[in-house]
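Observation: inputs received (chain + zinc ion).
Thought: call the complex predictor directly.
Action: predict_structure
Action Input:
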Amino acid sequence: MPLVSMRQLLDEAAKGGYGVGAFNVNNMEQIQAIVAAAVETKSPVIIQASRGARKYAEDRYLFHLILAASELHPEIPIAMHQDHGNSYETCKSAIELGYTSVMMDGSLKDDGKTPATFEENVAVTKKVVEFAHARGVTVEGEIGVLGGVEDGHGAGGTGLEHVTDPDQAVEFAERTGVDALAIAIGTSHGAYKFTKKPDGSVLKMDLLIKIHNRLPHTHLVMHGSSSVPKDLQDIINQYGGKLRQTWGVPVEEIQLGIKNGVRKVNVDTDNRLAMTGAIRKVFAEQPEKFDPRDYLKPAREAMQKVVALRMTQFGQAGHAGDYKPLAITEFIKGYASGALDTRPSVAKK
Ligand SMILES: [Zn+2]
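Observation:
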């Protein structure tokens, strides 16, 4: 099966009332872990690469590894997504390579650090939407600014400095026509999201619900949504690591989001923790080992376990066979005819 439009995955998730995990990759083992979890749980899945990942693995290695996954497992709908594109050029290069979805993160300037103005964000996102939709490719935008830094991308600070304004979210959706919208509700990238279990004062689920009510046809995206479970932190620290205690986004809050329009949930940190813990354990317990397979195999298995659990918790498990993936050309037609238009003034239930 060729790679599938992310829009189709999200539209189907909206129909089925579930969320789809979007998992970051940098190498073969991570791709294999995600796909093995998708096969195990019969889940459609979004595999995403940041700019840092594309650089680390080199574009063509990563692209062909993900393509291999879709060839080996035609029963699994797989969308390939550019995470946090910083510019029109980054998104264009991903689309030309064969990604079926891109995020244009115009909430920051192209340095990936400085918050952009609303007008700058609208202008660059609209330009990406025009280029992408003409090629049947899905676009995710971002309004408001997330906290933290990951892969060199991010404004830093807490997630509460630039939370999304619902009026701006509606205007942004109207003026850009994005398929999906990442909103800032207090979450941050990286492992250190919250200093205690988050409550409504730091994780603004009420704001998410408000935005969904105003924008029922735009798929919402939760970034920085690893749960950073204590057991994964503990394994790392038990075998010589030095993580300070931290809290992520509790799964039940993500599930509340999914009940309120969240269709894409980004998870990276949990998988990084799982792999690192497994590798540390081998190094500590079997210091005589030196074949990379001796620690990469348990790392891959540990990541598969976390991904499969998230797939079940987000509700995507069991949905891989629900629908027949459409050719990307169908999306070119759908965008051109207006059938896929999500703008609030046009979209109807
Ligand atoms: Zn993100």
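Thought: report the result.
Final Answer: The beta strands are 20-24, 45-49, 78-85, 101-104, 138-143, 180-183, 219-222, 262-267. The CA atoms of residues 240 and 280 lie 7 Å apart.
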